[in-house]
Write a structure and sequence with these properties.
The chain is of the alpha/beta class. Helix content is 47%, strand content 17%. The protein is built from ten helices and ten strands. The protein has helices at residues 2-7, 16-54, 56-70, 74-93, 115-123, 138-144, 165-175, 189-196, 230-238, 271-292, and strands at residues 110-112, 128-132, 155-159, 181-184, 201-205, 215-220, 223-228, 241-250, 253-258, 262-263. The strands form two sheets. Strands 1, 2, 3, 4, 5, 8, 9 and 10 form an eight-stranded mixed β-sheet that branches. Strands 6-7 form a two-stranded antiparallel ribbon.
Length: 309
């Protein structure tokens, strides 16, 4: 894991200030973990309330985006938007709760929607590209994927690098609490292919903005969006299964949602056509999950490259 990080130039803590920042963040993470889920969620909801009232431009743009892409009236969009604010702040707070959540919590905080599909994934001996997004408890999901298989089978999550080394080190350590390895999203093709060729599982967040030269333009929630082709390209090259997976908050904890996987080995056409089919598959899977519970998607994100002011 250390070698992989060096290969992709992960930031390292070097300065005294960065060390102090890391210690403070670690202390905050320990404090959040000691508070538990219920108290942490109440605090997160308080921050969401403040953000809702202080970030007027975000509030307005979020409501407008929901109206446009879900075709709902203003009041309904407003309700969804506020609950999305709460969900987003809960997701950020859950970074401190990863050590208290995992597969060992099944039946207490973790519930499985489709037990048959879950068992199918656990028994699968093929390489898997897990497609997910900024939906529900994505931080807890990233950590939990480290428990799907045992070492030495690779369990990897592709993430974006934070510019502050202390912040990045803290968040990476929290996400790796259950055995998953975090790897930066730039220049990782070799490491990901190596993991997939060892029948590993590699997770990607597929719903963020992407540079046009790295994307297909595909319909997403009623409007064209730039969709990252990286996961599709790597899945096709490794002849992997693409498995949509999401962790949704419910009253008693979290519900794990699995959709039927796509076997890229069975795709027909040229390499380019296969990659596009794979990208279309995980984009439609993401849209399906959002439409089921739009309140838990990160609507504050400017997904369609709008000119927000």
């Amino acid at each position: 894991m250390k070698k992989e990080r060096e290969d992709i130039n992960f930031p390292e803590i070097r300065t005294p200030l960065q060390k102090i920042q890391y210690l403070l963040l670690s202390g905050l993470g320990t404090a959040i973990n000691s508070l538990g889920f219920d108290t942490t969620y109440k605090l997160a909801d308080g921050f969401a309330f403040l953000a809702w009232h202080m970030l007027g431009f975000r509030r307005r743009n979020t409501i407008q985006s929901i109206q446009e892409h879900l075709s709902v009236p203003f009041e309904q969009a407003k309700t969804i938007a506020y609950k999305s604010f709460q969900s987003t702040f809960r997701s950020f707070a859950e970074i401190g709760l990863t050590k208290s959540f995992g597969i060992d919590q099944t039946g207490t905080r973790l519930f499985i929607e489709n037990q048959e599909l879950w068992e199918k994934m656990q028994k699968c001996e093929r390489p898997i590209v897990a497609s997910t997004g900024h939906y529900g408890s994505w931080e807890l999901l990233a950590s939990m994927l480290g428990q799907v298989y045992s070492a030495p089978r690779p369990r990897m999550v592709v993430v974006r690098k934070y510019p502050n080394p202390a912040v990045h080190a803290f968040i990476s350590n929290q996400r790796e609490a259950k055995g998953a390895s975090m790897i930066g999203h730039r220049a990782v093709a070799t490491a990901v292919l190596r993991a997939l060729r060892k029948n590993g599982i590699v997770a990607f967040l597929i719903d963020h903005k992407t540079k046009m030269q790295e994307a297909y333009t595909l319909p997403f929630l009623g409007e064209n969006a730039a969709v990252n082709i990286g996961p599709a390209l790597l899945a096709v090259r490794a002849e992997a299964l693409i498995w949509p997976i999401y962790l949704e908050r419910i009253d008693k904890g979290c519900m794990l949602h699995l959709q039927e996987p796509l076997d890229t080995k069975k795709l027909q056409g040229t390499s380019e056509e296969k990659i596009r089919q794979a990208a279309e598959f995980y984009t439609k899977a993401m849209e399906k999950q959002i439409r089921q519970n739009p309140e838990q998607w990160f609507w504050m994100h400017n997904r369609w490259n709008k000119d927000w002011h």
